[in-house]
Design goal:
Order of helices and strands: EEHEEEEEEH
Structural class: alpha+beta
Number of helices: 2
Radius of gyration: 15 Å
Number of strands: 8
Distance between the termini: 14 Å
Shape: globular
Strand order of the largest sheet: 3-4-5-6-8-7
Largest sheet: 6 strands, antiparallel
Helix content: 10-25%
Length: 135
């Protein structure tokens, strides 16, 4: 692991390109509907149960890592967008879109509007993404 000498973030690749901007992840929910912060808190609590994770508030969202980033969280006006990678496509809800990221990984996109959207199905998908990332 390489640690950036400026911001201290850790990366798998030496001198990996990144933004040194850091923030408290909950700052992304200021001015947003309160149910989005409640949903993020529930998501964060569930993700923490998966194993050792690192949460980084960066310029464009929240990156959650095991060995590598396995979940990107982006606060929008009325929802939270989740982005994660799996080995195969899962096209059923809560996933609203999939994109072949590279030969062995498919990017998945899911939207969360309230804590009730943090379902066992979503947690199972994130567990798979975590397992792939933790390697």
């Amino acid at each position: 692991m390489w640690a950036c000498p400026v911001c201290g973030r850790k990366f798998r690749n030496t001198s990996q390109a990144h933004s040194c901007f850091r923030s408290n992840p909950e700052d992304f929910f200021k001015g947003k509907p309160p149910q989005l912060l409640a949903a993020y808190r529930k998501l964060a609590a569930e993700v923490a149960k998966l194993g050792e994770v690192r949460v980084d508030g960066v310029k464009n969202g929240i990156m959650i890592k095991a060995r590598t980033t396995f979940l990107a969280v982006k606060a929008k006006k009325d929802r939270i967008d989740l982005e994660f990678l799996l080995e195969t496509a899962h096209g059923d809800p809560p996933v609203y879109k999939t994109v072949q990221a590279w030969k062995s990984r498919v990017a998945h996109f899911a939207a969360v509007e309230s804590p009730e959207d943090i379902t066992p199905v979503l947690i199972a998908l994130l567990r798979r993404a975590y397992t792939l990332s933790a390697g």
